[in-house]
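In response to the reviewer comment on reproducibility (Comment 2.3), we provide here a single inverse folding case reported in full, input and output, so that an independent group could reproduce the run without further information from us. The structure tokens appear first.
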């Protein structure tokens, strides 16, 4: 029998009810290997229609499912911390409320978990409104050494695709809010604390690229968060002073360019980094 695992899915007031329905069903009903339970973290109050959809999805779920309703919006990092604590199993799969999981996602990722890995990601397809129309593909670094080198400069995981062991997350100190980079900071600390990690190059998730996706990555607030992240990574010994300075210059500068240029720069750095392993 496969290792039992929980599906952790955060939801907040800004999520779309139809997109949530598609995300939930793709990650539960349509999987060749279904999760053993679903924990939906409702991060604060949500509109009536979204709550009705949540109730219906839990009611129709073929596996045990429940909503952990937080009384106020606490942000993604704290919501995921609460959700992890509520999961019944040590192995936890992440899913976002607007993406689509391909049918064999969990079946393929759990093979690596059962081989002893603590953190497993995968490639993804990007789409805007129609999931049948792919506008891009993100292929992550594969191989533990490649992943560790890459992590000094970029997040080596496509965060909506990960499956991890809760014990490894807790050993690294759990989620900590750092702008929109709580996933990156967690994964970097997991690697530094000895977690075994791997990626499947194959796309196993369809990732929705909303109109504001690249806008949210920029601005003064994200620049400050970037500087904070680089200080934290330097203090943790994940990067060297030279690497930290390079990251502030390159990644920080990326936060201040116009949205169109930011999109081009992100894709260029992402693909160049995957090929080179962000060495140096």
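Designed residues, in position order:
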């Amino acid at each position: 029998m496969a290792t039992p695992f929980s599906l952790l899915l955060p939801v907040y007031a800004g999520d779309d009810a139809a997109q949530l329905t598609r995300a939930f069903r793709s990650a539960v009903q349509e999987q060749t290997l279904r999760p053993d339970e679903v924990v939906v973290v409702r991060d604060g109050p949500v509109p009536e229609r979204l709550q009705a959809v949540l109730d219906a999805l839990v009611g129709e779920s073929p596996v045990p499912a429940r909503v952990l309703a937080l009384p106020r919006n606490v942000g993604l990092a704290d919501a995921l911390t609460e959700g992890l604590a509520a999961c019944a199993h040590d192995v936890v799969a992440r899913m976002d409320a607007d993406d689509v999981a391909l049918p064999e996602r969990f079946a393929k990722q759990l093979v690596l978990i059962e081989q002893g890995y603590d953190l497993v990601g995968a490639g993804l397809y990007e789409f805007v409104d129609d999931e049948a129309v792919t506008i891009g593909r993100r292929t992550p670094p594969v191989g533990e050494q490649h992943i560790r080198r890459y992590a000094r400069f970029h997040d080596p995981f496509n965060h909506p695709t990960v499956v991890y062991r809760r014990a490894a997350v807790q050993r690294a100190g759990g989620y900590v809010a750092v702008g929109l980079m709580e996933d990156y900071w967690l994964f970097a600390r997991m690697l530094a604390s000895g977690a075994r990690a791997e990626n499947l190059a194959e796309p196993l998730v369809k990732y929705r690229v909303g109109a504001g996706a690249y806008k949210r990555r920029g601005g003064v607030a994200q620049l400050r968060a970037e500087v904070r992240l680089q200080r934290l990574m330097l203090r943790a010994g994940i990067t060297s002073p030279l690497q930290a300075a390079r990251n502030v210059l390159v990644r920080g500068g990326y936060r201040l360019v116009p949205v169109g240029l930011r999109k081009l720069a992100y894709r260029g750095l992402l693909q160049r980094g995957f090929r080179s392993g962000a060495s140096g």
